[in-house]
Amino acid sequence: MKRRYFKKIRHLIEAFFVWIAFILFHYLLPSKPSIAFGGWIGRKAGPLLPYSERARSSLKKCFPELTSQEIEIIVADMWDNYGRLAAEYANADAFWDGKTLKNIEIVGLEHLKEFQNDGKPGIMFTAHTGNWQMITLAAQSVGFDLTQMYRNANNPYVDALMLYCQKLAVKNVITKKGDGPRNLLSLIKNGEHALLLIDQKMGEGISVPFLGREAMTAKGVARMYLNQDCPLLPARSERLDNAKFRVTFYPMIDFKPSGDQPKDMYNLLLHINDMVGEWVKERPSQWLWIHRRWKDV
Q1: DSSP-derived 3-state class of residue 172
Q2: Is residue 130 part of a domain?
Q3: Which domain holds residue 52?
Q4: Residue 121 backbone dihedrals phi, psi, to 5 degrees
Q5: What is the pLDDT along the chain (297 residues), one digit of tens a residue?
Q6: Is residue 295 in a domain?
Q7: Which of 89, 193, 237, 238 is buried most deeply by CB count within 10 Å?
Q8: pTM above 0.90, yes or no
Q9: How would you classify the pairing of strands 147-150 and 172-175?
Q10: How many structural domains are present in the chain?
């Protein structure tokens, strides 16, 4: 009982500061100073948080050739990106106001159009790189509304704000709690399209290498591809400079099943993990290293 009480108090304190930050970013500051200030807060405060030890540990194990100084630079840059991202969530209209796409460069638009118009349902997948929300905004700018799968925050008071911010940018949101997975399957069966982030740690799934280390990997996208004839489109967000981005839509995954379902699922997920791993290697400071992506972290 006492433990539950203290947990609620902790959640309320966390939520208080998150809501103050949202009011500052969304209502009080113009978008550019807001985003720059978010980056400054992230860079100054983030490396001091306990979560940063998880990031340092993962970086050392994935990139043993890095020096301690290089790791500290990546951790600080990661928090700078994350702080900017938080402010950008509160200022989605600074990038897409319903008419004009701003500060987002699109590469591979032909792949997005093919994915949109092939007459099939589809899953676009991405990772926690750059600001993944820019992918949804880029798609909306060409008249393509995606349903996005949202992972609920552990703090229910923070979660309410996060979901509100999500809906500022995304018209259709499915949460992972409750009937979320079932709703996603229904959406695919109805011929619609969804955006999923596929790089988080899973309590279930299968073990597949990611950045050279075994990581539990969700089977959902592979199951949809193999069993539902559901095309998969990789999409990547990169921060180019402060609040400017490049969104890249890659060719749809072309994987030829062998008929051996477990083997096909493993090989398809390995292909996807390798692709995302290359994105992380190219811009390690733009991936969210504070996730518990591996069991030994």
Answers
A1: strand
A2: yes
A3: 2-286
A4: -70, 175
A5: 667 777 888 888 888 888 898 889 988 899 999 999 999 999 999 999 999 999 999 999 999 999 999 999 999 999 999 999 999 989 988 999 889 999 999 999 999 999 999 999 999 999 999 999 999 999 999 999 898 887 778 888 888 888 888 777 777 888 777 677 788 888 888 889 999 999 987 667 899 999 999 999 999 899 999 998 899 999 999 999 888 999 999 999 999 999 999 999 999 999 999 999 999 999 999 999 998 899 876
A6: no
A7: 237
A8: yes
A9: parallel
A10: 1
